[in-house]
Amino acid sequence: MSAKERILAKLGRSLAGTTPLADDYDEALVTAPWAYPPEQRIPRLRELLEAVHGETQLTTAADWPARVVEALAKRGIDELLIAPDTPHGQQFAGHVAEKATAIRLKAYDRPVEEWKDELFFNTPASLTGTLGGIAATGSLIMCPTTSEPRLMSLVPPLHIALLKASEVYDNLYTVLQAQAWAQGLPTNALLVSGPSKTADIQQTLAYGAHGPKELIVLILEDA
Amino acid sequence: MNAPAPTQASTQPPSGATAATHAPAIPMTFKQRAHDAVHDKQLRKNFRGAMDFLMAKRAAQFPDGDEFERLRTFGNHVRARALSKLPELLERLETNLTRNGVKVHWAETVDEANAIVHDIVHAHEAKQVIKGKSMVSEEMEMNHYLEGHGVDCLESDMGEFIVQLGKEKPSHIIMPAIHLNAGQVASLFHDKLEVDYTEDVDRLIQIGRETLRRKFFEADIGVSGVNFAIAETGSLLLVENEGNGRMSTTVPPVHIAVTGIEKVVENLRDVVPLLSLLTRSATGQPITTYVNVISGPRKAEELDGPQEVHLVLLDNGRSQAFADSELRQTLNCIRCGACMNHCPVYTRIGGHAYGTVYPGPIGKIITPHMLGLEETKDLPSASSLCGACGEVCPVRIPIPAILRRLREENVRAPDEAPKYMRGQGSKYSRTEGMAWKGWRLLNTSPRLYRVFKLAATRLSALTPPKLGPWTEHHSAPKAAPRSLHELARDHLGED
User: Fold this and answer.
1) Most buried one in B26, B218, B288, B400, CB count within 10 A?
2) SS3 for B273?
3) Domains and CATH numbers, chain A
4) ipTM of the complex, rounded to two decimals
5) pLDDT tens column, A70-123
6) Domains in chain B and their CATH numbers?
7) Which of B253, B164, B216, B225 is nearest to A211 (CA)?
């Protein structure tokens, strides 16, 4: 018998004569305490993100590229990792070309193995989209894609994320339902709630543990 | 078994080669270790501060007592339902993970689990393994095992990294280096990493970040634990704040997740209440920085992520707890650590004194299944049964009741059937058994009781001055010249 068969046999014997418990899932308990009027979703999300050192800005679908340029200039960063084949990547590239700003754009357009060193040690900032936000916990929803791979939102010290105001949900349960997660998940799905942090030394909170040191969330109010 | 590290109040830069923590002499028994820990003022201070902090943070997350009570009932039902169909869910999990391209392995013992990991490591000729936080890998002593096979296994969670650097073990399941203060970490970094001494926590974390970033980059294999394994979708869910979990499961070409067989839940939506209970109970956060749901290796068109993902499902005594409906509740645990944060014993002796991977109340009820009662016989009685652990448990594990049950298993005759536990009767003593039988007889037969009472009161001068361990800390009891019954009868004017 294999380990699997032995384990399952033991567990099965222990359950002999019992019936599985019914699913009494209490949907109201994971939604009602975490429901907000539409006008309160964004303020709550911002409050929670800022409480954990996330920066948030209200902007628009037309103006956000200028905010990105400002944020980079403020930090003396002249390089940005973008996904050129996404609508927002194209919009930002267009903005940079038009304004002739001195920002070098990099694309995550080849397997990580081919440029790992540069990604890890020479990519100060990245820009990605999101699949929405969660007001209850101040979270961003991200499902990395071929255009915006997993490490794009993790390795660069500054991560700038775009969030459409119309895609801010009340709570995780409503997200799972609205986006039908159970029907099929990508290889990696993420909730991100602030820049990386740790309190492992004497319960003192420090930001910039292994992931981004800073997270800027640009909320597009008209999108 | 791990010994407690003596801790020094090292707020000053160390002189010479003195580290904040060094290899201690190993006290052999739980009682000796607890005794030493209780007298270690720095350790007491570190734990008191940390526990007060964590309790306050947690309390702030549950302002609505009613919501908390209802949610923990919900959490309990979700876990109990999963356990009520565990074999079926494990098979469904395997089917769906396999469909997603994840290779599933099963191990009854830690030796089997280590062999599985070693086979994977060997197949890839891996030399460097980087680990996210995983308590199951601690059960396996994976670092030690791999080291013995020439493979370097580095911890990447900041707390785990610190304890590994100090050649210690975690003293808390959520905050592994909770027994150390900033000064002690500063000394350790100064000694081991040859950096300037600094107690600035931001700077210390940046030192850790820089050291480990290179390692994520170089590692051949990433190892992680699992918070919830979701049968419905074939997914592994991990929570963390640092980003080391995402790094360990994304950067190296191979990811190996190790977890206990009890960690499975039926449906994706089941994680909603559990996730809320877990992060709020553990660190008082509405959610952790990252919730990472992994449902497969890198696809052909994807540009990063591991090429291979493995899941090792470990039994290691869990099926023994599963066999009894009371003890089975132990497996509801979602490893939040709230029971230890609220435990007056843990707060005073710290995590190392237990000498086990899982310290505190949950450790006292899960470890006997992993190691047998013979190795853990002092644990069930290392409790005042104050009930705090049971009150805060987010999935309503009746920890005090299970502790009492384990005390019973500890003193049942070793050969008495039915046998529920390995090491049954490890504290069994025929004399003690006889004494209790005598006590029962005395208290259930009125005539005998009256004779005893008369003897005890009238001959109280003959009470021995030393009564075993009792008189080590108490004065010897001396019966009053007349019993309460007699006094009451006098008072009421009866015969």
Assistant:
1) B288
2) helix
3) 36-220 (3.40.50.10420)
4) 0.97
5) 999 999 999 999 999 999 999 999 999 998 788 999 999 999 999 999 999 999
6) 86-318 (3.40.50.10420), 446-492 (no CATH)
7) B216
